[in-house]
Amino acid sequence: MVPTTCRRTIAHLKLVPPEQKGISLDNRFEKKAFWRKFEAQGYPMYKRLSAILCVFAIFSMSACTGVSVRNAARSQSQAYKAQGAVAEQRLEFVKNYQDCIAKAGENLQQVEACDVYLKSAEALS
């Protein structure tokens, strides 16, 4: 004698047509029926496909445009930061030149040595 649980398992392994299991063939193809009804109303497949492709193209173009705008803004921001850093370095060279001239006083050799700062500031211009 086979236990009850095994009998249930064996019964489920038998090939039973879907109609006897309570599954109608129409339920399995509801999606296709929906699209057939949609086409019957005057929306054939090629019109749906072209509409979907147009929407996809619009979204993809807008996404690409946003990326390029962000990259341009980022590049411009980095350029402004670099220009600011150069201006600060130039001001520092000018300040060092002025301090060096103040310390040199009447000594011409030290004044000539201070010209390095002035030339460095001019090079950054």
UniProtKB/TrEMBL annotation:
It comes from Parasedimentitalea psychrophila. This is Uncharacterized protein.
